Amino acid sequence: IIQLYVPLNWFGTYYRAIQKNFVDMENMFDLLREEQEIIDAPGAGPLAVKRGAVEFNNVTFGYLPERLILKNVTFSVPSGKTVALVGPSGSGKSTIIRLLFRFYDVETGSIVIDGQNIKTITQESLRRSIGVVPQDTVLFNNTIKYNIKYGRLTADDSEVIDAAGGADIHAKILTFPEGYDTQVGERGLRLSGGEKQRVAIARTLLKAPNIILLDEATSALDTQTERNIQESLERMCTNRTTIIVAHRLSTIIHADEILVIKDGEIVERGRHEHLIGHEGVYANMWRQQLESKDAPSSAENSLEKS
Ligand code: ATP
Fold first, then answer.
1. Which one-letter DSSP state was computed for residue 223?
2. Could you tell me which residue, 240 or 247, shows the higher pLDDT?
3. 22, 70, 95, best to mutate for ligand 1 pocket (most atoms within 8 Å of CB)
4. How far apart are CA 123 and CA 46, in angstroms?
5. Confidence (pLDDT) at 220
């Protein structure tokens, strides 16, 4: 028991120290290679990715046995579609994302990608087909080129430049003292929140996964930056199966389905227009956001897009 408890506990502390909401999971697995709790099933083969359809079937899960965090969560994301998760803090949104990345195993129920239960395939192949764009990207103390290339280490320079272009950060990198060879991170050039997000987008473009998990930033970027990033994100997610943890409802008006999570359960689901049409949790959240201090940009966005 002690042996199991100590690494978990250490992990929890480390995890919270790095990120509040949704860890930079792709990095974490490299950092924590020796601490993995989840092991591949004997004889597990690689995920045969077809089109990236995701299904949660009656998923129940708790971090600790005595406290269930997700209860009977069932939804599916058809390939190329976008599902958004919204709900109060602590309701279980990030947990859904962590389970799909197989950070933990479900207690009951199953998570299935293209017909394959993720418990039966190798973790390496699972994580190779999923791109994660966290709120806050952890940069390596290395060059900006390496930091982008991390999405696919075999990529060549021209592919790195293309990905940077797609994430709208190429021109910015050219202004850095040594261009793509500029050292970034704690011991190098510090990048702004928006720039780090662009690095995450570039990494993901390079990885070219069928499935994207996106944690929308809560931190305020200025409106113009915000809009530009939103555009890059939308381009990246087009025709890719996407699950987004959304904080600003104005960004998910066009999601194919919105799941409202409360206390670990899906309490409402449907498209934006459907959900605001009936008095419920979502309609309330929408009203609150319109009234809050973000109102100008939310209201503007919603008028613009609807
Ligand atoms: P937020 O919007 O604030 O990010 P969320 O909806 O993503 O919240 P989760 O991070 O999924 O919520 O957390 C759901 C619940 O699980 C919370 O009560 C949280 O305290 C608990 N929890 C999260 N991670 C752990 C962990 N490693 N160990 C134990 N409990 C955890």
1. H
2. 240
3. 95
4. 8
5. 58
pLDDT for position 303: 41
Specify the DSSP class assigned to residue 139.
Answer: P
Tell me how far CA of residue 215 lies from CA of 127, 174, 193, 270, in angstroms. 16, 28, 14, 20
Q: Which two tokens stand for residue 131?
A: 């791109």
> Directed axis angle between helix 223-237 and helix 193-207, to 10°?
10
CA–CA distances in Å: residue 94 to residues 19, 141, 208? 12, 27, 22
Whose tokens are 């103390």? That residue is: 141
Between CA 62 and CA 68 the distance in angstroms is 4
| pTM for this prediction | 0.83
Cα–Cα dist 25/249, whole Å: 24
- Residue count of the chain, please give it: 306
For residue 82, what are the β-bridge partners?
242
The answer to whether the CB of 89 is under 6 A from ligand 1 is yes
Using an 8 Å Cβ cutoff, are 267 and 260 in contact? Answer: yes
Residue 178, Cβ neighbours under 10 Å: how many? 13
The answer to whether the complex's ipTM is over 0.90 is yes
